[in-house]
Amino acid sequence: MLKLLIDIGNSYTKLAVFNDNQKVYFTQSTSFAKKDLIDIKASFPEISAAIFSSSAGIPEFLPIFLSREISFSIELNHTLPLPIQIDYKTPATLGKDRIAVVVGAQQLFPESNVLVIDIGTAITYELLTAEGIYKGGNISPGMELRFRALNVFTEELPLLSSKSKHPFIGDNTENAIISGVQSGIVFEIDGYIDELKRKYKGLKTVLSGGNSFFFAKKLKNSTFAESDLLFYGLNKILEYNILKNTNE
User: Which of 199, 233, 212 is nearest to 108 (CA)?
Assistant: First the structure.
């Protein structure tokens, strides 16, 4: 079965086509338009199901197009039937991308304790138990946000960006900022992993997000980086709802 998966973010809209559990097409755009959907459906006319998730509003044309052109379509939200149990006090405020990456991690490591770390604009930490219970997580500023904050909220510190190599102890202002930001993130991530490993047996750690591969090789803890984690989650959630709809 061909399925269309759509993730609408603040900066990009990402679209993927999955054939069963395999990604066969991917594109992203800063200006999502109806034509994008028309082109994908023309290239993959056998698409029969779709799921969309948005953290930046839903274009008016999207649900109209899906209802007309695709036989089964759903929007991801906390009320949707899910293959995990959400143990979160305010599920309505839970980011949809956070739900998707946790479900994606469950597909990679079924019946395991899993920590999902999404390293993007923000760094999010999500904990899923081996019993399939999402316990919640934490949110902290991402790398670019930290660089920008030092520039915006001080008088003289420059706006810098990441460097793969830098001295651990900064020997000038530029190196001090770069090492402070990047080493701080490394210690933060390793600290979370160390603490949760003591509490959750056999904990697996999955990294996702735009900066996941940048930090994966800098951590002392063993991790698994998967750039398509969110789409694996959306795909599983869609399949789960298709099955429930078929059995009802």
Answer: 233
87 as an active site residue: the answer is no
Question: What is the C-alpha separation between 38 and 42, in angstroms, rounded?
Answer: 6
Which residue, 47, 40, 45, 99, is CA-closest to 75?
99
> Given pLDDT bands bounded at 50, 70 and 90, which one contains residue 126?
very high
- The pLDDT tens digits for 157-175 are 999 999 998 999 999 999 9
Residue 229: predicted pLDDT: 94
What whole-number distance in Å separates Cα of residue 16 and Cα of residue 28? 9
Per-residue model confidence as pLDDT tens digits over 22-43: 999 999 999 999 999 999 999 9
The pTM is what? 0.90
The 3-state secondary structure of the chain reads CEEEEEEECCCCEEEEEEECCEEEEEEEECCCCHHHHHHHHHHCCCEEEEEEEECCCCCCHHHHHHHHHCCEEEECCCCCCCCCEECCCCHHHCCHHHHHHHHHHHHHCCCCCEEEEEECCEEEEEEECCCCEEEEEEEEECHHHHHHHHHHCCCCCCCCCCCCCCCCCCCCHHHHHHHHHHHHHHHHHHHHHHHHHHHCCCCEEEEECCCHHHHHCCCCCCCEECCCHHHHHHHHHHHHHHHHHHHC
Among the options 39, 87, 97, 228, which is catalytic?
97
Tokens of 153: 């909220």
